[in-house]
Design brief:
Elements (H helix, E strand, L loop, with lengths): L11 H47 L4 H24 L11 H15 L2 H10 L3
Length: about 130
Amino acid sequence: MAAYKFRKPGDNAASNKSERERHLLLKAGVPFVLFSILAAWVVSNALDGKLKEMETSQGKQSVSIRQAKLQEEHEDMMDRLGKIVATEFDNTKRIQRPEEVLATRRLERQKRNKWYRRAWRAVSGAE
């Protein structure tokens, strides 16, 4: 038969129970507290934003605050436009076809080789 150990009333049973309770508190209580704090923060931020929207729509927000926001947005848009304009991209200019390029070169050559221009180059010695 197995030998049974008899424990004294204040021995390990009470300390094991208190350790289990502490472990249970850490395991279940800390995440619950963190969740509650985070949820309260999210709800308060959402309500603050909703209240600000409501005040703005009802006209309770001061004109200077609205003007400052509009001025800030305007400056931001102008900065963006300035960066776009700085690249000097012209999307209205189309790419010429090879035939058009050849035609423009032929016209330039014809203008350059007119009889009076050839004569002037011969007289002046210019190339």
